[in-house]
Design a protein that fits this description.
Radius of gyration: 22 Å
Number of helices: 6
Number of strands: 0
Strand content: under 5%
Structural class: mainly alpha
Helix content: 40-55%
Bound molecules: flavin-adenine dinucleotide
Oligomer: single chain
Shape: elongated
Largest sheet: none
Number of domains: 2
Distance between the termini: 58 Å
């Protein structure tokens, strides 16, 4: 492993995400250089994140990985799967395949938490699609 990219949501990252022409130029040209000019990529990674020695030291030291995770990792904006749908024999499945809460009468959960695994798409439209699907199921279920 020779490339690493430990990132955090820093003030610098925040300011680069503001929509304005100078940021388009900065991020667009950096992305091009990053992809096509290995020297640029390697130098930038070294300047921003340190040398490979630091990476190798971290890999061998669990405490430094834990420290980094505590400092830099955050939940992001696409939290999901904390109350997942699953088969009857899945002990982690809070919900049955029609989003009924197992063991509770008359209660369903239909939101991003019901996703059985982290999706390879954005969560908003997927959550809406799940809600429409389960609304149809509820409406077609005789009461
Ligand atoms: C800053 C940000 C940016 C995002 N950008 C995108 C994006 O670009 N594209 C994308 O696909 N996804 C995006 N997401 C993720 C997306 O918004 C969520 O995955 C999606 O909204 C999840 O839907 P949900 O119904 O599970 O939860 P939510 O949309 O969070 O709905 C939960 C609702 O429950 C309400 N609520 C909470 N507690 C109570 C209570 N006790 N009583 C009554 N009501 C309560 C809340 O007010 C809220 O309205 C973003 C998320 C964030 C935070």
């Amino acid at each position: 492993m020779n490339t690493w990219f430990l990132s955090g949501y820093t003030e610098e990252a925040r300011s680069l995400s503001v929509r304005k022409p100078s940021n388009y130029i900065k991020t667009g040209s950096a992305a091009l250089m990053f992809d096509y000019v290995p020297f640029f990529r390697d130098t930038l990674l070294k300047l921003k994140f340190g040398t490979q020695d630091r990476m190798h030291a971290m890999i061998q030291n669990r405490d430094s990985i834990v420290d980094w995770a505590r400092e830099a990792v955050w939940s992001g904006w696409h939290v999901s799967c904390s109350c997942k749908i699953g088969a009857d024999n899945d002990p982690m499945a809070v919900l049955d395949p029609e989003c009924r809460v197992r063991g509770v009468e008359g209660l369903r959960v239909v939101d991003a938490s019901a996703m059985p695994s982290v999706i390879a798409a954005n969560t908003n439209i997927t959550t809406i699609a799940m809600a429409e699907k389960v609304a149809d199921i509820i409406l077609s279920t005789p009461s």
